[in-house]
Write a structure and sequence with these properties.
Layout lengths: L1 E3 L1 H20 L2 H5 L4 H20 L3 E3 L4 H14 L3 H6 L1 H28 L4 H5 L9 H14 L6 H31 L26 H27 L6 H14 L10 H28 L10 H26 L4 H15 L2 H15 L5 H25 L1
Parallel strand pairs: 1-2
Helix pairs in contact: 1-3, 1-12, 3-12, 4-10, 4-11, 4-12, 6-13, 6-16, 8-9, 9-13, 9-14, 9-15, 10-11, 10-12, 12-15, 13-14, 14-15, 14-16, 15-16
Length: about 400
């Protein structure tokens, strides 16, 4: 085992993100289909690490402790860019997206159980390649795997779940941009030209120096840090009630409250300064998300797929096909058939195959290519980061029973 220190791992992630951006900048194909830059660099690293393992037998493990804090930075910045008016408008679409995600989780599990039976496995094993690992992610997989081993006799439950999650995570990164690009081109829809991006800047845009100076970036950093501190406080209060929510959801809520409930963080500044602070928030959120997702992908242990390759491969292919068809023909229409719906469709694969960060990365790549979608960047994190875990637990319990 070769262990890479946290400091070196962090700097490798930055280098990989730079490589991904450079490759995408030179590739019309990658830009056209809005493939996120972290996917390019992160997958190159994980593929190289897997090759080293298969050739020499040495495992390389990166220390990724700083990764989770970057996610808090990202969602705090998103909250600081959000307006209450967007949340109010997002009420009905939020419920619709939650309903669609719930229906899709049931379909995922039915497909997983059917394939497990077809391969002569315990049907319960199919749940580990369904909503447990794909919608739920590593945390949900780790929580349910011991139950499947001890109570249901699925001895390789953890391996199935982790392998499925890794494959789904990569697939989610790849399909989101092309789906949105197809919908945008097919239905000839455009974004509002007056909206600023929630994350990063458009590829064809120029950032004026007056809008991104030393003080505006520093104010953006201070605002993010304050929102994170408030988020930790919200987390502690919720924990005392006996419930738990992901910390990044607390930071998202904290950012929204800090921005909208009378705190003069932005309001006392001139219009130019407010634009500059927003640009600073967009830049910081883009950097933190890019490094986070790069670290997540470079940490994938692809050799773990080898033991159950045939079953996992068939399951993932069919789950991906199901996701694409459901997104294009159901989600897009149900969410309004407009540009915001197309951006949400870019993130739906992240909801059902990857993670919240994957969903947002796909949406970010699309918005940087075509324009802002403010409501999508509020609806998807709330559904994906909070409600979906609660509903998924109920769905899993139903199928296990």
């Amino acid at each position: 085992m070769i262990e890479v220190s946290a400091f070196l791992s962090f700097n490798i992630a930055i280098l990989l993100l730079l490589i991904g951006k450079a490759i995408k900048f030179r590739s019309n194909f990658l830009r056209k289909y809005s493939i996120p830059e972290p996917v390019i660099g992160g997958f190159l690293c994980s593929a190289l690490v897997a090759l080293i393992y298969f050739v020499s037998g040495h495992k390389i493990q990166f220390a990724l402790g700083s990764r989770d804090f970057l996610l808090l930075v990202f969602f705090a910045a998103i909250g600081l860019r959000a307006d209450i008016s967007d949340l109010v408008k997002g009420g009905k679409p939020l419920l619709m997206l939650l309903f669609l995600a719930t229906a899709f989780m049931i379909m995922q599990n039915v497909l997983g159980i059917s394939l497990a039976s077809l391969f002569g496995l315990d049907p319960h094993a199919g749940l580990m390649v369904g909503s447990i690992s794909l919608t739920g992610g590593v945390g949900t997989t780790a929580a349910w795997a011991p139950i499947f081993v001890d109570r249901l006799g699925v001895l390789n439950a953890m391996e199935l779940g982790i392998a499925s999650n890794m494959g789904g995570l990569f697939a989610a990164c790849v399909i989101g941009g092309p789906i949105a690009t197809y919908l945008i081109k097919r239905h000839k829809i455009t974004a509002s030209p007056d909206e600023d991006l929630n994350v990063g800047v458009r590829y064809d845009a120029t950032m004026k120096a007056a809008h991104l100076d030393y003080f505006n970036v520093l104010r953006a950093i201070l605002g993010i840090n304050i929102a994170i501190m408030i988020g930790f406080g919200i987390d502690a209060l919720v924990y005392k009630t006996g419930f738990t929510i992901p910390t990044f959801v607390s930071c998202l809520v904290a950012g929204i409250l800090f921005k909208n409930l009378g705190v003069p963080f932005l309001r006392k500044y001139s219009t130019t300064d407010r634009i500059g602070i927003n640009h600073g928030l967009s830049l910081l959120s883009d950097l933190s998300l890019g490094i986070f997702l790069t670290m997540a992908l470079m940490g994938l242990q692809l050799w773990a797929l080898s033991g159950v390759f045939a079953f996992i491969a068939v399951c993932l292919i069919l789950q991906i096909v199901l996701t694409v068809l459901f997104t294009v023909f159901v989600v897009f229409k149900a969410m309004g058939r407009d540009y915001e719906a197309a951006v949400i469709c870019a993130g739906f694969g992240g909801i059902t195959l990857g993670s919240t960060a994957t969903a947002i990365a796909n949406m970010t790549a699309v918005s940087q290519q075509y324009g802002a979608a403010p409501r999508a960047f509020i609806i998807v994190p709330v559904v994906c980061g909070f409600f979906i875990d609660i509903v998924n637990a109920l769905v899993i319990s139903l199928f296990v029973g």
